[in-house]
């Protein structure tokens, strides 16, 4: 008997294990017999530290689960103003490598952010039918501003993925906050437009009768209505479209978000496909940080490819975040007309974000 107990470690280790079982929440500030410092370390498993802000929401929960399954993640911090204990407890039972810790409320924001390599922000309210993304500005602008102030203070070098809408304004707000704090590095701030690419690949594959996994459509501009500009002429594999097909596909891609908002009939906007897209994008950022070559995705970034200060286009991701922002490439007349419409709306949305942050 004694031998068996000894095999299981000394008394302190046994108590620690029992206590861990009694208190699995891994919540910041939870007191129990077990201090986290007493846990047996996981041997410094390689990987990145990722924080999700808004982790208990419609996007946040599936996003947190998918990031818990990501082998590139060693530590996953889940922050929200509500419900993080339950989400953290639940996810902490998954037998994947990432260690999950939960953080609840503004007092715990700094601890949630300290030491992070990548911060993903899906915090904020979603649309209801009849609303535009810009209608979310009044609530979400302040949320993103406060969270970015925390990032500037606690992990100024982290890569930041902004999901909260309206992305066309929240990314400029984040940039202004970082500029004000003296921490702005345009290579590390990315508005997540991956869902537009995911939708474009899916809808184009439907029309062409292809497997969506074989299709790659660049989507440039921004992330709202006409600012979402799919470049069907640059699709891989190369394919041609009739003008009716191009008009149908462009409209469906631009209105994909509204399609989901209407189908959910008041219960929110895209969450599951967004979580999938966010993880696809976050994984690319982590691959870049790891030093993988040729990691290229579309994102809404600080840019000189047009006269606007921000624009979504293809970027190459690397150890410093964005290593290269690609020019838009050749466009047909339909796309050039779309580009002019996109730029007009984008300019106003960017300006709205910049002046909000200046207040
Ligand atoms: N970039 C994109 O492609 C997409 C963006 N979105 C946007 O993502 C945002 C989130 O959408 P859902 O997850 O569906 O909303 P949700 O309402 O289900 O979840 C939002 C979460 O944010 C939390 N939250 C609110 N204020 C916070 C704060 N100050 N700090 C931390 N967390 C806070 C809430 O407690 C909630 O858990 C919305 O703004 C939505 O428009 C949605 C789909 C696609
Ligand atoms: O449409 C919305 O409000 C959410 C969103 O950004 C999207 O699904 O693309």
UniProtKB/TrEMBL annotation:
Positions with a binding annotation for substrate: 127, 133, 165, 199
Alphabetized InterPro entries for the sequence: L-lactate/malate_DH, Lactate/malate_DH_C, Lactate/malate_DH_N, Lactate_DH/Glyco_Ohase_4_C, Malate_DH_AS, Malate_DH_type1, NAD(P)-bd_dom_sf
PROSITE patterns, per the entry: MDH
Top-rank EC class of the record's enzyme: oxidoreductase
Keywords, ordered alphabetically: Glyoxylate bypass, NAD, Oxidoreductase, Peroxisome, Tricarboxylic acid cycle
Protein known as: Malate dehydrogenase
EC nos: 1.1.1.37
Chief subcellular location: other
Chemical reaction(s) catalysed: (S)-malate + NAD(+) = oxaloacetate + NADH + H(+)
Organism of derivation: Artemisia annua (Sweet wormwood)
Family indicated by similarity: Belongs to the LDH/MDH superfamily. MDH type 1 family.
Chain positions recorded as NAD(+) binding sites: 54-60, 80, 140, 163-165, 274
KW Metal-binding (keyword) present: no
NCBIfam families listed in its UniProt record: MDH_euk_gproteo
Residues the record marks as active site: 223
Molecular function GO terms recorded: L-malate dehydrogenase (NAD+) activity
Assembly with partners or alone: Homodimer.
GO BP of this protein: glyoxylate cycle; malate metabolic process; tricarboxylic acid cycle
Presence of keyword Cell membrane: no
Location in the cell: Peroxisome
Pfam families tied to this protein: Ldh_1_C (PF02866), Ldh_1_N (PF00056)
Domain Lactate/malate dehydrogenase N-terminal: 49-191
GO cellular component, one term: peroxisome
Domain Lactate/malate dehydrogenase C-terminal as annotated: residue spans: 193-356
UniProt xrefs under CDD domains: MDH_glyoxysomal_mitochondrial (cd01337)
Stretch forming the signal peptide: none
